[in-house]
Amino acid sequence: MRLGITEILLILVLALVIFGGSKLSGVGKALGQSIREFKKEVGGKEEEATSAPAEAKEESK
């Protein structure tokens, strides 16, 4: 089941009517911050994982 343009617009209009413009912008801002923090944490874990084996090799020499 695929959503068309009409269905998506109807959902957006209903969300705007139910929650109001100010709440929707706040939710969007919070969602954006959460995604940025998640990406930052995931990126930090990858850097730690790749640097740990290099440090272990240097210590064993």
Summed up, what is this model?
The chain is mostly helical. It is 90% helix and 0% strand. The chain is built from two helices and no strands.
Shape: elongated
User: What Rg do the Cα atoms give?
Assistant: 22 Å
Largest sheet: none
- What's the order of the H and E elements? HH
Percent range for β-strand residues: under 5%
Please give the number of β-strands. Answer: 0
Q: End-to-end span in angstroms?
A: 59 Å
Q: Please bin the fraction of helical residues.
A: over 70%
The secondary structure category is mainly alpha
Any overview of this molecule?
The chain is mostly helical and 61 residues long. The chain is 90% helix and 0% strand. It contains two helices and no strands. The chain is elongated, with a radius of gyration of 22 Å. The protein starts with a helix and ends with a helix.
Feature tags:
2 helices, mainly alpha, single chain
How are the SSEs ordered, and which strands pair?
Blueprint: H1 5-19, H2 21-60
